[in-house]
Amino acid sequence: MRISSQTAARLRDNAPIATLVVLVLLVGVLSPTFLEANTLMLLAADTATLFIMGAGLTFVIMVGGIDLSVQAVASLSSVVMAVTLPALGFLSVPLALLSGILAGVISGVAQTRLRIPSFIATLAVSGIAAATALMLSGTRSVPIPPGMRETVLAFAAARTFGVPNDILVAVAVLVVSLFVERRTVFGRWSVAVGAGEPAALVAGVPVNAVKIVALAISGGLAALAGVVMGARLSSGSPTLANEFLLPAVAAVCVGGTALTGGVGSVARTLVGALIVSVVRIGMTFIGVDPFAQQIVFGGVLVLAVAATIDRSKIPIVK
Fold first, then answer.
1. How far apart, in whole angstroms, are the C-alpha atoms of residue 277 and residue 31?
2. How many domains does the chain have?
3. What is the sign of the dihedral through the CA atoms of 183, 261, 126 and 157?
4. Which residues constitute the domain of residue 94?
5. pTM of the model
6. Residue 218 included in any domain
7. Does residue 13 form part of some domain?
8. Phi, psi of 277, rounded to the nearest 5 degrees
9. Within a domain: residue 52?
10. Residues 109 and 212 sit within 8 Å (Cβ to Cβ)
């Protein structure tokens, strides 16, 4: 019995949600404490920063690019916030976000003006951001002064009506990102560029501008993720987000956004981020060696890309 293309597409779209439900139930059966309210709240808070970073990365992948600088940009933003907080107060937060946006713009200009592939451009910017963070911090963590902690803790580490503020920040990012994706010209252009850049050019879409804006959004949200992590830990560090790149890419791809572009959604990335968090926290609950997590993420990423990639766009794999 053959499955119609429409049915196959529907199954593929719903596969991430089904996977999430199965994983939660599986871990819950193996470790019942996983389903307790406190654990689920911890899961949501842990997912927040990963989703924020993945949301920005989604726009870059939807236009057919990749951003390998997100973890370095997140670390840099935490250092910028911690270093400038004593002098600028809460203004250090927008300055940290600006550093991420600037990194994204530099990547975008390098890609569009110098005709450098996005993975090379963002890899170079990643090195620049990492080196800048090391120089600003003196190669060490920069603690937020005790008298200034309330300023930043209110931003991310405190609670509102019992809900951690970092979760509320992630919800705000979700709402704004969905609006940009579905209700703005940029959102439609992003899908068009990813689906077929030559056709988008013929249709009058400013392809280069779309790529630069997508990378700027990715840099800005990576910086926001770094600020949230720094606020939660009360310090900035040049290595704060060093393990976030692979989980962030995995979250986007596992959620169903195609690495070849043109297909994807920030909402799908949320589901993917939850899957990654369930896998990571679930492995801890059932006693899997923490060092095996990167192995699992690598395997999950390969399977997700294999399931979502549009092979018609890459007839020859190099």
1. 16
2. 1
3. positive
4. 35-242
5. 0.90
6. yes
7. no
8. -65, -40
9. yes
10. yes
Contacts of 299 by beta carbon, 8 Å cutoff, 6+ apart? none
10-51 tens-digit pLDDT: 666 677 888 888 888 888 888 888 888 888 888 888 899 999
Q: Are 222 and 64 in contact (CB under 8 A)?
A: no
User: Which range has the worst mean pLDDT, 38-42, 167-171, 200-204, 224-228?
Assistant: 38-42
Beta-bridge partner residues of 163 = 160
Q: Which amino acid is at 281?
A: I
Tell me, yes or no, whether 8 lies in a domain. no
**pLDDT greater than 60 at residue 317:** no
DSSP string, the chain: -PPPHHHHHHHHHHHHHHHHHHHHHHHHHH-GGGGSHHHHHHHHHHHHHHHHHHHHHHHHHHTT-----HHHHHHHHHHHHHHHHHHHGGGHHHHHHHHHHHHHHHHHHHHHHS---HHHHHHHHHHHHHHHHHHHHTTS-EEPPGGGHHHHHTTTTSEETTEEHHHHHHHHHHHHHHHHHHHSHHHHHHHHHHH-HHHHHHTT--HHHHHHHHHHHHHHHHHHHHHHHHHHHTEE-TTTTTT-HHHHHHHHHHTT--TTSS---HHHHHHHHHHHHHHHHHHHHTT--GGGHHHHHHHHHHHHHHHH--GGG-SS--
Mean pLDDT of the chain: 85
Question: Which one of 9-23, 129-143, 268-282, 289-303 scores highest in mean pLDDT?
Answer: 129-143
